[in-house]
Structures are given as C-alpha cells and as structure tokens.
Amino acid sequence: MDRPSQSERLQDALREIEERLAIPQPARTRVLLELHADLEDLSRLYREQGLPADVAEKRALESLDLSPAALAGLAAVHANPVRRVLDRLSAQARGRIERAALAVVMLSAVGLVLPLVTSGKIFRAAGPFLWPTLALCLLALAVGLIKLYQLYVVQDHTPRRVQGQLHTPLALAAVQVGCGFAGMYGHFFLAYLRSRSAPDESTVHLTRALLGSAGLLTIALLGALISALIWFLAANKAAAIERHEAALRFPRRDASRTVPTAPRQ
Amino acid sequence: MLYLIRVCGPSGWGLLIVTVLALVFIVRALSRRQPRDPEAAPGTDTGHAYARHSILFWGAMAAVLGFLSQCAAVYTALTTILSAEALSQAAVQRGFAESFIPSFWGFGVLVVCALVWLGLALANRRPRTHRRQAATLAMIAAALIAGQGCSSGDRPAAAITDGVWLGRAGGDEFYFEITANPAEGFGGVVHSLSAGKKYGEMAISHARWEDPQLELIMGATQVTYRGQVDLARGRVRGALHYADGTSRDMELRRADPDQVPGLRARPRPAPGEPLYAYRSPADRNDGWTTASVEDVGFARSEIEGLVTAVIDGQAGVLHSLLVVRDGRLVLEEYFHGYGPDDLHRLASVTKSVASLLVGLALDQGRIRDLDVPVFSFFPQHDDLRTAAWERVTLRHLLTMSMGLDWSDEEAGRLHGTGEAFFRLVLARRISGEPGTTWRYVSANVNLLAGVLRQATGRQADEFARQHLFTPLGIERFDWSWGAQDGYRAMDGSLQLRPRDMAKLGQLVLDEGRWQESQIVSAAWIRESTGLRIPTGEPIGGYGYLWWVGSIQAPTGPEPVVLANGFGSQFIAAFPEQHLVLVSTGGNDDNGKHFALAPLVGRYLLGAGSSR
Hints:
The complex is a heterodimer.
Chain A: H1 8-20, H2 27-48, H3 53-63, H4 68-78, H5 81-90, H6 96-119, H7 121-126, H8 130-154, H9 159-163, H10 168-197, H11 202-249
Chain B: H1 2-8, H2 11-31, H3 47-83, H4 89-125, H5 128-154, E1 164-169, E2 172-181, E3 185-194, E4 197-210, E5 213-218, E6 223-230, E7 235-241, E8 247-255, E9 289-290, H6 300-311, E10 318-325, E11 328-334, E12 344-345, H7 349-363, H8 387-390, H9 394-398, H10 408-413, H11 419-426, H12 442-445, H13 447-456, H14 460-469, E13 495-496, H15 498-509, E14 513-514, E15 517-518, H16 522-528, E16 533-537, E17 540-542, E18 547-553, E19 556-565, E20 569-574, E21 579-585, H17 596-604
Parallel strand pairs in B: 9-11
Antiparallel strand pairs in B: 1-2, 1-8, 2-3, 3-4, 4-5, 5-6, 6-7, 7-8, 10-11, 10-21, 12-13, 14-15, 16-17, 17-18, 18-19, 19-20, 20-21
Helix pairs in contact in B: 1-2, 2-3, 2-4, 3-4, 4-5, 6-17, 7-13, 7-14
C-alpha cells in the first residue's frame, strides 16, 4: 500500500489530539486512525467542491468536532472496559509459542470430541436444546469466516471496516456456552418432570439427562472453542492492520512501541 | 503426571501444554524479565501487563479444556453404561471419579493463575508498603493450592484392580493381583515370591470390595485376607485369617507388576520383540551333550510355540522346562527368576528316585527280592508284627497296594519319617488284600527309608550319593528337609537341579545306562517302569513308584513313563520318541498341575515334531 500524501497541518493536528487523549493503546491508535480517516474524507469532499488542497484540509479540521467532549465520547467508544478486555484477550495469541499452544489446545479438543461427533449419536443424545446451540455455532462460524475473508482476501483496511463485526464470533461463542448450560438445566428439569410422573424410572431419566447434558455441553464447548479460534485469528489480523496503518500514517512516531506486542519467546 | 495424562485422554497433552505455558508466564511475571517501557504513554499495555494477563488467559484455557474433557468423558461413560448388559459398581465409581480429573486439573490451574494474577495486580496498584505483603499472600495461597494439586496428582486414587498389592510375611512376598469382570465380579490370584523367585500362586476364589473394605478369599488354602483400603496412598491395612482361627497382620502396598523380579515368567520384551526366541542350551560340562532342536528333528517354531505358551502362563507356574532327545539336551529354559543352579524340590518325583534305589539294592543283592515281607526290614518294631502284616511285601509297598486302613484324610495328610513314624505306619491294621487295590498313600512310601537303611546299612541319601548320583555326575542335591533320626523322607523331600533330573529320565530311557556305564540293571528299569497295577487315574497305571501311561498327541496316545511330583515336577520319558521332558514348577495351589500335558502333546509330540 502506498503511503498517503498528507500535509504537515493534518499530522500536527493529530499529534496534538494524541497528546490530549488519555486512553491506553491500542484504543488511542484506533481513535487517531478513525479521526484521520474522517479528516481525509472531509478533505477529499472539499477538494471535490473545488477548494485547493491546503484550504480543504483547513476546512476539514474546522468542520470536524474536535472538542474535548467530542474526543471524550470517541475515547469512550474505543476504550470502554469490554473492548479493553477484548484487546488484552486477543493479544494473548500473538506470539509464535502461544499460537502453537492454542493450536495444540484446539487439536486436543477436536481429537477428544471428534470420535463422539462422527458417530452421530451425540447429536441425538443432546436433545432439542441442540438446535439453538448448533444454530449459534453455525452463525458464529459464518460471521467469523466472512470476517476472515474481508481481512485476508478483500483487504479493506478502513478503520470502521476492520473493526466491524470483529468481536461477533466471540460473543456468539459465549452465547453458545450459555445455551449449553441452559440446555443442561433444561435436561434436568425435563428429567424431574418425567420422574414425577414415573418415580420408578427416575434413575433412568436422571441418567439420560446427564447423558444429554454431557453431549450438549461437549458440542457447545467445542463450537465455542472453534468460534473463539476464528475470533483470535481475526482480532490479531485486525491489530496487525492497525499497527501497519499507524506506521504508515504517523511516520514520525514509532508506532510499534505503543502497540501491545506479544513478547517473542 | 503420566497417570493424569492417560486418564484425561487426548486432551491430556493439551492440558499439560497449557499448564506449562501458564507456569512459564508465572515465572516470567515474577522474575520481571519484561521491563516496563519508560517511553510508553500512561496506561500503555506494556510487557508486565501482557505477561500478567497471559497467566489468567492460559489458566482459563486450561479450565475450558478440562471441563470439555469431563463432558466428553461423562458422555462416553454414560453411553457405555446404558449399553452394558452388566455393570461393575467399582468400574462405574472409578469412571465417575476419573471423569472429574481433567476438570479439577483445569480449574486448579485457573485458580492458581488467578491468585498469581491477583497478587501481581495488587503489587502494581497498592502503595509500596503493602505491595510486598499482598503479593506474598497471593503467591503463598497459589503455591499451597498448586502443591496440594500436585501431591494429589502424584497419588491418584487408582482402582483396586490397578497393579498388584504386596504383602510380606517372614522372608516371603505375596503379591495380590485383583481382577474385575463385570459379569463375574472380583477375583484374581496371589503370587508367592521369595528372593526374587515366584515359587507358587493360588487363586483368589472370591473377592469382595466395598470401599474401603476389602476381603479376599483363597479357597484352596482356606485363607482369607481382610483389610481397609486407602486407594489414594496405595495401601491396605489388614490381616490374613487362617482356617484354624489364627491371624497374622499384613499391610499391602501397591506395586508395579512389571517392576517385580520373578513375578512374570519372563520380563516383558521390548516393543516388536518376540516373547521368546529359541536358543540352544549352554554346555556346562556336566555330562550333557547339547544340540539344537533342529538337530534332533524338532521344528523350531513348535518349540518356540511351547515355550511361548509357558511364558504366557498356559502351563501355570513353571520354573524350568528341559527337553532331551536322542541323549542330547536341546531345550533348557527357566522362568520366574529360577536358574540352572537352583536346586528344586521334586515332591513325589522323590518316590521314583526311591524306586531306583530299591533297584540298586536288589542289583547289589542287598535285598533278596520283592516278595520279602516289609516287616523283615524293621526288626526293632517286631512287637507290632501281625499275621496280616506278614503278607505285605516290598512289592506291595512299591505298587501302593499294601491295603492299610488309612482314612482319606490321613492318606492325604500324613507325611514323615523316623522310627516313631515307622511305628505309626506299621501299627496300622491291614484292611484289604495286599496287592489288589492301588491307593496313593505317601506315608507308606516312607517305610522305604527304613528298608534301605536295614538292607544297605546306609541312609538313603548316602546310598544314593554313592551308587546313583555320583555315577550320573550329580554333584549337588539336598535331601535334608523332613529328615528324622537320620532317615530321609522318601515320599517327597529330595531337591535336584533340573539338568540332573533329566539325567534320571535319560537313565530310565536307556534302561539303566548313562553314557558308557550300566548304573541300574536294565531288568529293574523294565520291571519298575512296566505296568504293575491299574490306578483308575486318567494319567494311567502304576509301576514301582513310577506312573505308566500315555499323553494325548495329535497322532494318538503317546506312551510315557512318568515321575510325577505335586506342583508340576515331572520327569517324563517317552520311549517311542526317545525323548525326555523335565519340568519344575509351583502349581501346587492353582489347579494347574497337569496344565503342561496338553501343551507337550500339541507342540512336542505334534505331527511336526514327532518322527
């Protein structure tokens, strides 16, 4: 990607904004990239209206609301506690060894569950609660794979595009696990109802409830792990794109020093 | 640790790697190898924070993987349980307990990681005066939990059927091997060892296991072991209870059967190695000519099949197996820690040796003939002499047909020698016509000690040394057990080396000749090993203290002259095959005394091996 031409004015303005932003990385870089994209869009608009380049930049800076309140609002969006946690979480698989370990974890999980899944019986045992769990799993996989396609193949590095739907697979993974636990309680509740009508068979109902719960939770956890893995890949790619963009757009800063980088093992 | 990995299945290695990674991050965070970036803006996520959060992350990964493992394990176990026709309660309990292990492992790692993470977070945020205390407290808590987890991991609550349980009594070791079968419940076997040699085994006819109570009943000996089991520590505190009401404290400890010398017939071979590969016997300069099995017409595969079956336990507990053909020793194998220099008790094979000694005394004219009344050899007990006893001759003694009125219990139990014992026997009433009915009574045979002493002027062991063992080149023997008043027990206390036992077999096969010397007359060998009286036993009839019968081979019954000692002590001479087979063993209490016979028929006398 070519380095975008930008004036000293824009760079100075962004540097001044960065000093006013008291938020941690990588949210700070993310805010700056978003502001930069907005300024470039406005500047392009004014240039298309016939204004000279330097006037267009000046007009763009004046048009964009860069007041402390506006910056605080922007910072709140990018540096809220949830996103901070997600940033920290996604950073955990940035080193080679961590990635390898993550792959081993996935392979162990798949190796553990695959013989059960291939027999097909586990799906029948999981009961009616299987379907919402499977639907969530498939949705998470679809969203995650689309996101990976955008990041790796389409390579649209617009800040909003990069961040859009980035965390959805992880959220869906969490809901899958929740669905699995809800299904477990559902199984036990059904077993309770059946045992009430046929007390002599309560042991059988309880055993079947345990079997269904174990099967359901196994599927839910495996689906959640796979979804989380896709999210790891996407989130790390997004972070790499942001680092790359920051290095291109703010050349006088050493962007790599302010972006959380996994220590090399 | 290996136990934990095995129990956790495919996820075990994943859990191990995640645990190691979490530990690496803990060490990194504690050692502060990642310096804080001095140029980083406030709130920047530097190396410290990264390492700290990594601890928590990998702890959480361990918990997730552990929980997934438990779900899969519970599912698998329940599927098996629901489809099983019969269930072992112990197996269910064990499976249920083991299903929690990956979860405990994973969540244990998470708790330790969380405490370390908390300690580090506190250390970074609190005023300096409190940092060290807060961090120290969190670290101590984490270390305690990790230590507890590791110690319980090292002592897994394995099942009662895992490994073997070692108990000691005197110089002996008893290894209780408990097995479980969902259909039949618990059972097993007790291995008896001394000085690295397994001298016997007995079946656990019934076992009851209701944690922590364990009861093992050895029906053959009417001994019961009762104890309290501590599976986590691999220990059972209890006692052996005998049929006569006495008991003996015995603590059992879990042991690895593959690490106990002599417990298995042979050490487990390396992967890919055969259980047994044939090799010719060593030349020990003891009078034997050795050869390869092919040299005497055996197929190597048949011999290897025979020995492999023995190692596999199909013949029970064998200590040695030797084969001689055409006068050449072609197979010599030892098992369960025994070796060629070990003297082995011959049990009732001693009786057949006594027969040879009687033959020698006859050959030397020290005994006139076999029709001499037994009482004529016991002038010191003339006060017991009766008219009925006058009809009881040496021939009747040698054919076990004296007609004494022993009860069945006495016939099986009574052993001994010496003047008092002779009186005990000679005082018995004659209830049957001598020479008509065969009845196996070891006590009667012991009269031969007095017969030989009176006839030769020497005790049996001295007479044997001079006229039998020395000419055969048998330098070591022991006949001391049970001796009384200088008399030897003639029914079963002689000890010989297996190679020397084979010489006795060859002597019989060659009608009393050993190499170039006629040691016992051919007439006596022919007479004593001929059928003299039927026994009604499956093995065949009886000669003069030799069994005379046949062993079933693929080609039909194969005639055999057999010295037969309790526990699989055999000297078997197959005249038509010109073959001698010797075995020693410890099959006294396991019901496998004759388990070797079908193997011999199949492999040694099989179509591929016979001529």
